């Protein structure tokens, strides 16, 4: 069954994540079209946001589902561009999809694909490359964090694979507390690995906090890596998830 695809991100008032999302979609469109609809000039992939959009997600889904039907297709597959199985992935997006499906009836079938962060081994490979390019004594894997039960388990598993220490932006243990513990242990060169897809307000805040920590611990060097970003690894990962049955 041929489908169209919709990438759903969190959304932000900062223009950079939206620009990066568009860049990712543009890189994906040719790959997906050539693989599925080589004779069609119409793109079969679009983007939507859960928040910071003038229309709710269920309406964005409904609009693209109607476009899907006009292409002569009857299935729309939705990929949550999130790294954690938190409230947005497990509750908010399924609720919005259910509202859209009820409005569409049987005209177009909606299917939610696995969220981006479930591919831990692939993400670990990408993050390992970043870590080896910036030599540090110890690394902290810094995620946004989720208050949903088991929502942070992938971060704990990924940190274990990487030999890093987990920390969270919105819950404990925080970056500050983990760094304090490492400094007391005697580490002098600490790397911070932001576990975020795109650069934005939070990654800016992480950079500012690292500067404050450098002032506080003047004998310690802090190095902050880039977020995942739009690159061949991310594009390949998204394509593989989209092509899974």
UniProtKB/TrEMBL annotation:
InterPro entries: CbiX-like, Sirohydro_Cobaltochel/CbiX
Database matches in Gene3D superfamilies: 3.40.50.1400
Keywords: Lyase, Metal-binding
PANTHER family named among the record's database cross-references: SIROHYDROCHLORIN FERROCHELATASE, CHLOROPLASTIC (PTHR33542)
Designated name of the protein: Sirohydrochlorin chelatase
